[in-house]
Amino acid sequence: MQWDLSAWLHLAGTPYESLPSYLSSLGIGLLIGVERERKQHTLAGIRTFPLVCMLGTLLTMLVPSLGSAWLPAAGLLAVAAMGILPATNRAPDEPHEPRTTTVIALLVAYSLGVMIALGNIELAVALGVLTTGLLYLKPELSSFTHKLLRYDLLALLQFATLTFIILPVLPNHGFGPYAAFNPHRIWLLVVLIVGVGLAGYLAVKILGEKVGAPLLGFMGGLVSTTATSLVYAREAARNPSSQQLAARVILLANMVLFLRLQVLTMAISPAATLPMLGIMLPGMALGVLTIFISQRRSQQQENAPELELKNPAQLNIALGFAALFAVVMLCSAWLKDIFGNSGLYIMALVSGINDVDAIALTSLEMFGQQQVALQPLLVTVTIAVLVNTAFKFSLIFSIAGRELAMRCLPTLAMAMVGMLGGLALSVLL
Q1: Which site from 293, 328, 368, 400 is most exposed, i.e. has the minimal number of CB atoms within 10 Å?
Q2: How far apart are CA 273 and CA 277, in angstroms?
Q3: Beta carbons within 10 angstroms of residue 114's beta carbon
């Protein structure tokens, strides 16, 4: 239900019927103007921006009365001409805000005023907030761009190209044996899983070593639980004093795996959201509870080693995901045709050793296409997580030794117990 300020104030039919539009323009202009006013010797500030925004609304509303559709365009040119005004007096060594940013902000404010006059008030307000955010967060955005390496930018460009240019033109129907190769669906799954990993990678890149173990574990879990376990197992092997930190990061990353699988389920097969939650939530809850109990007496602070993770948006990694998904989908369809649901379980045992996402996404995709029932889906995902967890535990034990492995064992074991308990309950129900 849309809130109509004009109707609430009974302004319809009065000379003040358009007052809410001008108030909206005033508010947007003030919001942007307050941010600009904080800059030294800026071209426009807390008075100019509201006036410019209301000018856009005023000239647009005058078009029907004056019969001139060029009024808004003329106003836009007049605002743009403000960019050639001379700068205010200031000392030569005094810092100043680049004029181009303020001029563009003025043009945006004017255009938002035009949008309000055309009736797009909600969108104009949202864009005004986003504009103010971009202006205010300049230091953070600049710092972020300087932390990205050249190959990070190249990988982001590749990912954007393959997502927004290639994905829409891929055929969305099955090819080959069992019609298992659907290029559009396969790449859509790639975009989803790489996008989740990319979010974690960028967060680690931005925050660096300033974050603590909980956030490092969370972000590392978004990127790759196996990679995170490997990085911190090696760190613990090199530096025995970091055992406690390594255990916290590894365990938290492995708890994030449950959350990641639940989010993927919601995105791919919404019908399986609640049943999947029934096995993911007990596993994550028992694991987190075990972490809390084992760590509550320890207050020691340690320096966090940097997470040396690969950018998951790199082209070769994305193509590797696509090839892996295609192979897993074909093998899963073939094994299911020969062995029934047992074929999926065999595939989960094999592919789960190195990666959970491929078999989990494949089984979710098959469930969405009604090629597999709910219970085999839950069993397949559970098997993959169990096998993957056992593999990571053996990795930790072989690299870092018995001490770190024993620190991780209770949490990993309780998480698996919780997951199996949730699966057993879902079968009984």
Answers
A1: 293
A2: 6
A3: 23
- The region that residue 208 occupies, defined by phi over 0 for left and psi between -120 and 50 for alpha, beta otherwise, is left
- Contacts with 189 (C-beta within 8 Å, 6 or more apart), sequence order: 268, 321, 325, 361, 365
- The single residue listed with the structure tokens 């743009």 is 80
Instruction: Please state whether 304 falls in left (phi above 0), alpha (psi between -120 and 50) or beta.
Output: beta
Which stretches in the chain have pLDDT values below 70? 1-17, 40-41, 83-98, 178-180, 189, 192-213, 216, 223, 227, 296-318, 320-321, 324-325, 328-329, 332-333, 336, 339-341, 353-354
Q: Output the pLDDT for position 1.
A: 41
H-assigned helices in 269-314: 273-295
Question: Helices 99-117 and 48-66: crossing angle, nearest 10°?
Answer: 40
Cross-strand partners of 181: 175
Query: Cβ distance 347 to 379 under 8 Å?
Result: no
For residues 426 and 283, the answer to whether their CB atoms sit within 8 Å is no
Question: Which residue, chain included where needed, has tokens 């760590």?
Answer: 295
Segment 146-190, tens digit of pLDDT: 777 777 777 778 778 777 888 888 887 777 776 667 788 777 767
**286-324 as b/e, with b when 16 or more CB fall inside 10 Å?**
bbbebbeeebeeeeeeeebbebebebbbbeebbeebbeb
Contacts of 269 (CB under 8 A, 6+ apart): 364, 365, 367, 368
Exposed, middle or buried: residue 265 (CB in 10 Å: 0-12, 13-18, 19+)?
Answer: buried
Instruction: Write down the domain spans for the chain.
Output: 5-136, 144-428
Please give the DSSP secondary-structure letter assigned to residue 235.
Answer: H
Provide the CB-side half-sphere exposure for 269 (13 A, CA).
27
Orientation of helix 225-238 relative to helix 243-268, angle to 10°: 180
pLDDT value, residue 420 = 92
Helix (H, G, I), strand (E, B) or coil at 375: helix
* Tokens 């993959």, located at residue: 384
Give the residue carrying structure tokens 């096998």: 387
- Supply 195's token pair: 């996008």
Kindly list the distances between the CA atom of residue 117 and the CA atoms of 76, 86, 163, 309, in Å, as whole numbers in the listed order. 14, 31, 36, 49
Distance CA 347, CA 343 (A): 6
Tokens matching residue 331: 């093998």
Other residues' Cβ atoms within 10 Å of the Cβ of residue 246: 29
pTM: predicted TM-score of the whole model, two decimal places = 0.56
**3-state DSSP call for residue 175?**
strand
Question: Measured between alpha carbons, how far is 46 from 104 in angstroms, rounded to an integer?
Answer: 16
